């Protein structure tokens, strides 16, 4: 069952359990549904977290793994508020629940290295999420958000595939990166050996070490040589740039900060950057940029920083 179907079912249960006509049979069926799939309880829990503090159903039947319980009856006014909450949660969930329910995810500014069951090594960049789907026939990583780096363990019987909404990147060797970019494209960068990149609406291309390919509108564009010489520097907590537009550098730093980093790309379009910056200290990186470029960095709060020409 897809995440979207689970979201819809969870929203229906929330609505039913807050109806004045809810029955004991409804509550029993709800508990059965929660226990049928771990993702069901996760969906209810996280929708409930958005909804706010909720009352608790009677303990019978048996308590599920997560606290997915709701009051049997509520005043009609509360029902209206609850239904509005369901609409809100459903709308948010359709966009974000797959990420909330991901097998592995990172927060803003966090990176995480993960040892997979097959011996492969996976690392997630800031604010990233993946589902891991291994079986006897294939190994699939669904990149739901952000960027990953993977060092693939060899297994001739089970292909290793990274999938996004644009297509797939199948390992023909070992190390590569896959990124879901802000513009909706998928970027595949090969560090070692080669990768078969295939769009959902096109034939595939082979991308070799030192090359990058973009999937856009389900089509794989021809592989191009890398402009940067250390594309996986982020796995070591570094941002290395060589004559890159300042706006690109600021956009990358923004992905490691809580809050907003505001700037006007047109006002900064003639400024370019070379250097090495620590991703775990974006304030120091911004300070260094201000020391070496004709820009000023203004902190209105820790959550709002504005960069503009001096």
TrEMBL record:
Molecular function GO labels: sigma factor antagonist activity
Residue stretches spanning the membrane: none
Domain of life: Bacteria
Domain FecR N-terminal positions: 8-49
InterPro entries given in the database record: FecR (IPR006860), FecR_N (IPR032623), Ferrdict_sens_TM (IPR012373)
Domain FecR protein, chain residue ranges per copy: 105-195
Pfam families for the chain: DUF4880, FecR
Protein name per UniProt: Iron dicitrate transport regulator FecR
Organism encoding this protein: Pseudomonas cedrina subsp. cedrina
């Amino acid at each position: 069952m897809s995440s979207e179907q689970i979201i819809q079912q969870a929203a229906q249960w929330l609505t039913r359990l807050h109806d004045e006509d809810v029955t004991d049979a409804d509550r029993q069926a709800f508990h059965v549904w929660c226990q049928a799939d771990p993702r069901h309880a996760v969906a209810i829990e996280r929708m409930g977290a958005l909804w706010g503090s909720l009352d608790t159903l009677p303990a019978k039947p048996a308590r599920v793994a997560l606290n997915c319980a709701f009051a049997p009856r509520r005043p009609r006014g509360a029902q209206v508020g609850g239904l509005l909450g369901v609409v809100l949660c459903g709308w948010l969930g359709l966009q974000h629940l797959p990420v909330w329910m991901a097998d592995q995810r990172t927060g803003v500014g966090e990176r995480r290295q993960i040892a997979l069951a097959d011996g492969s090594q996976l690392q997630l960049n800031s604010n990233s999420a993946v589902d891991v789907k291994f079986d006897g026939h294939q190994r699939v990583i669904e990149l739901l958000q952000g960027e990953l780096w993977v060092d693939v363990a060899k297994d001739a019987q089970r292909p290793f595939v990274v999938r996004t909404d644009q297509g797939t990147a199948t390992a023909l060797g070992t190390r590569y990166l896959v990124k879901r970019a802000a513009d909706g494209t998928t970027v595949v960068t090969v560090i070692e050996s080669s990768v078969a990149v295939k769009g959902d609406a096109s034939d595939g291309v082979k991308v070799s070490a030192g090359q990058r390919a973009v999937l856009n509108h389900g089509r794989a564009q021809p592989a191009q040589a890398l402009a940067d010489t250390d594309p996986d520097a982020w796995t070591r907590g570094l941002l290395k740039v060589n004559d890159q537009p300042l706006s690109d550098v600021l956009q990358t730093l923004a992905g490691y900060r809580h809050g907003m980093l505001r700037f006007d790309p047109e006002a900064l379009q003639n400024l370019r950057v070379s250097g090495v910056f620590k991703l775990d200290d974006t304030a120091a990186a911004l300070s260094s940029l201000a020391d070496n470029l004709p820009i000023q960095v203004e902190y209105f709060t820790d959550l709002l920083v504005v960069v503009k020409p001096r």
